[in-house]
Design a protein that fits this description.
Number of domains: 1
CATH topology: Rossmann fold
Distance between the termini: 36 Å
Order of helices and strands: HHEHEHEHEHEHEE
CATH superfamily: Vaccinia Virus protein VP39
Number of strands: 7
Largest sheet: 7 strands, mixed
Radius of gyration: 15 Å
Strand content: 25-35%
Low-confidence stretches: 1-8
Structural class: alpha/beta
Shape: globular
Strand order of the largest sheet: 3-2-1-4-5-7-6
Helix content: 25-40%
């Protein structure tokens, strides 16, 4: 099963769900990790572009990576007014993004990392680190809880992710936990900020 299985089939409901909450609410615990000056930001697994649009409207140069055609298409329609560069690419290789060259001040992964198995995470982390500028940051959230039907998710702890990041030269500068924003009592989240030397 592909890591983004179950998303295209449920794109309409997911679009409504994603767009029902704001960037500032979802990322309230890590907003301090984002640059105040216009910067280059890569949003991996951008979904419908809610976060990419919010960041672009704040003056950032945003590239949104989304492998699910239905979600990418919805995002391009909904946020057409924002100057977002959309790319069809996916982890762990990020071949298209890496082929374009360039470095980013922030690489975001919102509810993405747990879709990769252990081997894929081992491949992906050095690629993420290589995409960062000096002092660039990876800002990611990890979902904990039961796996929705038809999806592929793995049990990934914050501790394991921090250790893997360290092996790729990234140090943890933020580790927070919180309840699910949609009120699912059996789901919780970890938020991580990882910084390059």
């Amino acid at each position: 099963m592909r890591s983004n299985s179950g998303y295209g089939e449920n794109a309409e409901a997911l679009t409504e769900q994603y767009e029902s909450v704001t960037f500032s609410d979802v990322h309230r615990d890590v907003l301090h990790l984002f640059p105040s000056q216009p910067s280059r930001i890569l949003d991996i697994g951008a979904g419908t572009g809610r976060d990419a649009a919010a960041l672009a409207s704040s003056g950032h140069d945003v590239t949104a990576v989304e492998p699910t055609m239905e979600l990418r298409g919805a995002g391009m329609r909904i946020h057409a007014a924002q100057p977002i560069v959309w790319i069809d690419d996916s982890l762990p290789e990020l071949a298209v993004v890496r082929g374009r060259g360039g470095r980013y001040d922030v690489v975001m992964l919102t509810a993405v990392w747990m879709h990769l198995d252990e081997a894929q995470r081992g491949v992906a982390m050095p690629h993420l680190a290589a995409l960062l500028t000096r002092k660039g940051r990876v800002v990611m959230s990890l979902r904990h809880g039961p796996v929705p039907a038809g999806r592929t998710m793995h049990d990934v702890s914050a501790a394991e992710t921090i250790e893997l990041a360290a092996s790729a030269g990234l140090r943890c500068i933020h580790h927070g936990q919180r309840e699910d924003m949609l009120g699912r009592g059996d789901v919780s989240w970890s938020f991580l900020g990882l910084e390059a030397d």
